From TrEMBL:
It is found in: Membrane. The lineage of its organism: Eukaryota, Metazoa, Chordata, Craniata, Vertebrata. Belongs to the NIPA family. The chain crosses the membrane at residues 12-37, 44-64, 84-104, 149-170, 182-202, 214-234. It is a multi-pass membrane protein. The gene is Nipa1. This is NIPA1 protein. GO terms for molecular function: magnesium ion transmembrane transporter activity. InterPro entries: EmrE-like, Mg_trans_NIPA. It comes from Alaudala cheleensis.
Length: 252
């Protein structure tokens, strides 16, 4: 139930605010999960929680304040944009290369293979989710565009379903071969980066962002990413503040 509610919340968030804000803020789930599960965090984990929260605040302050695509007609125009179509073709070629040639040979030994597949699929899942929310607004209206909105929504649902199924498959493969903490940290950074790139090309959410806000977003995302790495990768280290006060004993 909680997973379903979380996905519904993500869906509503993507339809209400810019993608560039929603995706990085998903990092806040990591420190909250550690608190709810009563996991013991070392000093690096606590520092990671602090950095994640601080970076999220910076993202909120500097994120785009308005949507660039608010109607179905605008969405259709963006989906047929040559730049976005070219980007999707490049992503599809990379996915085919990774899935059918590279993954069978190097997937179990190189963590970046499975992470690349799952992250590239994010270029379809998040924009599709946002597009479904926009198209669904016109489905139940009695106007000529409602039929087009229904077809568009069905296509996006099919793309979203296929992307999620393939992502689940390769996430499970990665967790069978690699440590979940390392995978989770690297996957968050790469997935978020590619999702932001796809959303920027499709929805042009960065078009009205100034230099100061752009640098603020970059710094906020970097801070959140470093915090996630500290929480996930170094959580097994037996290290706390008391260790800093121990004298450094040297022996000849």
């Amino acid at each position: 139930l909680t997973v379903a509610l979380g996905q519904i919340g993500n869906f509503l968030a993507y339809t209400a605010v810019p993608t560039v804000l929603v995706t990085p803020l998903g990092a806040l789930g990591v420190p909250f999960a550690s608190y709810l599960l009563k996991e013991k965090l070392n000093i690096l984990g606590k520092l990671g929680c602090l950095l994640s929260c601080a970076g999220s605040v910076v993202l909120i302050i500097h994120s785009p304040k308005s949507e660039s695509v608010t109607t179905q007609a605008e969405l259709e125009e963006k989906l047929t944009n040559p730049v976005f179509v070219g980007y999707l073709c490049v992503v599809l070629l990379m996915l085919l290369l990774l899935i059918f040639w590279i993954a069978p040979a190097h997937g179990p030994t190189n963590i970046m293979v499975y992470i690349s597949i799952c992250s590239l699929l994010g270029s379809f899942t998040v924009p599709s989710t946002k597009g479904i929310g926009l198209a669904a607004q016109d489905i139940f209206h009695n106007n000529p565009s409602s039929q087009r909105a229904l077809y568009l929504c069905l296509v996006l649902l099919a793309v979203l379903g296929c992307s999620i199924i393939i992502q689940f498959r390769y996430i499970n493969k990665a967790l069978e071969c690699f440590d979940s903490s390392v995978f989770g940290a690297i996957y968050y950074v790469v997935f978020t980066t590619l999702v932001l790139l796809a959303s920027a090309i499709l929805f042009r959410e960065w078009s009205n962002v100034g230099v100061v806000d752009f640098l603020g977003m970059a710094c906020g995302f970097t801070t959140v990413s470093i915090g996630i790495v500290l929480i996930q990768v170094f959580k097994e280290f037996n290290f706390n503040i008391g260790d800093l006060n121990k004298p450094n004993m040297k022996t000849d």
